[in-house]
Amino acid sequence: MAAATSSIAPSLSCPSPKTLRSSKASTFAFPNIGFLSSSSRSLRSLTATVAGNGTGSSLSARMVASSAVRAPMSLDFETSVFKKEKVSLAGHEEYIVRGGRDLFKHLPDAFKGIKQIGVIGWGSQGPAQAQNLRDSLVEAKSDIVVKIGLRKGSRSFEEARAVGFTEESGTLGDIWETISGSDLVLLLISDAAQADNYEKIFSHMKPNSILGLSHGFLLGHLQSMGLDFPKNISVVAVCPKGMGPSVRRLYVQGKEINGAGINASFAVHQDVDGRAADVALGWSVALGSPFTFATTLEQEYKSDIFGERGILLGAVHGIVESLFRRYTENGMSEDLAYKNTVECITGNISRTISTQGMLAVYNSLSEEGKKDFETAYSASFYPCMEILYECYEDVAAGSEIRSVVLAGRRFYDKEGLPAFPMGKIDQTRMWKVGERVRKSRPAGDLGPLYPFTAGVYVALMMAQIEILRKKGHSYSEIINESVIESVDSLNPFMHARGVSFMVDNCSTTARLGSRKWAPRFDYNLTQQALVAVDNGAPINKDLISNFFADPVHGAIQVCAELRPTVDISVPQDADFVRPELRQSN
User: What are the positions of the active site (predicted)?
Assistant: First the structure.
């Protein structure tokens, strides 16, 4: 598609979301967290060396560790339809709205004034959100129409028809016709496509309609050009903390277990008539979100794009490549090396963190295993943090957003140069071993708990948490982007189909980010962390003690209390390939 970014006039900047208090707020009490004392100490200002060995990352470590933690912004909100609850996460008060199918009866009130919801796009999120919304509104006995909008000639029309959306029923049609006729437009096309088509999209929206986003990427793109959204529409976001197939899979499971689903954040960027917060919360409840927490559109895109390049995908890809190579070079069989890297992270470690927290991973190890964990954690924390720090600042500066937009344009022939779509990464030795391992894996097998791999992975998770904390993100956002989305959504899919499958089949922005940043994590671990281990660098006891005392463990436990009592079910033979990729293949 041709770029369309040069002629739109800058609009007036929109006021930030109102910080209002509601009389419907209630306090949710949580049990005492046994593994944290009431006077947990704050993180020490850590030294500049990596595990005391002076190898690399020293400048990054010193800069990150010495700066003060930025206090999270106030994210209170007002709702006249749903009941919000106050939670305390690591000493910070936040507000959430619980989900559940028993709340579907409130959807007509939340969506008051909306006759048609247009779902634009049929990629990762489109199919899941459209079906969940439709099914929830039917259960609520609402006559609101959910209509899919696709570009003419798209082969995704067949996919939409296969799940019940049709032209004859008025629930499937042309993208521009759907936008023009919708009161709530859920823009779920790829980030790069949004960047290239936003002018035409805005021009087709009705005055006082609502633009719904599931990612803040478009705001970041507009900001990079000094622009904002048109001032005659409301702009909200509901951002599920998992890919589309997870959103649909857990919603279906939720028909049997009330509240099963994927958590979501919501944001009100612009509200022209006072309806925006209730509409956004209704959207989230209709998707099946167990709980919805507040953020801003800017904080969302920074944490989300960063997270995709970090522990959600890019960093996991990088560390398993590095560790598989190390284990096999040191004499471990290929099958065992794969089990002790990928299977260990996506299975055993993820399930343990999901249900019991990070400390439970360490506590389940033998005394010798704990030493291996500490060695790996100590050596890996700062090399991981160095890359994460750089990545966050590239996202915040707009560099990653610009990179995604330009990459999307290189997918097509232009300027006499050939097209360069993303190639697949699943043909190398490690991923072929993975195919063999999964074929022979017993049903329900979560793989081993290998202490060294656990130490590296948990160090990565804690380093990402620390970066987001220092950058002022709320604990809800930190935990969902760094822990819950990883262990409850993405990793189970990777366990079923492999890391390479996920890198080849998730959103375009995430796939691009993983390919760009995974080699950086691989390099830093190989050149710094593993060299430190081989050189016998002493364990950094401050890092280990700070890990044990970090208040994030208590915050994760609070979030676990809100978790549905169901794990996502991912059949190994399920087809989770995105429609456009299935067609191109």
Answer: 215
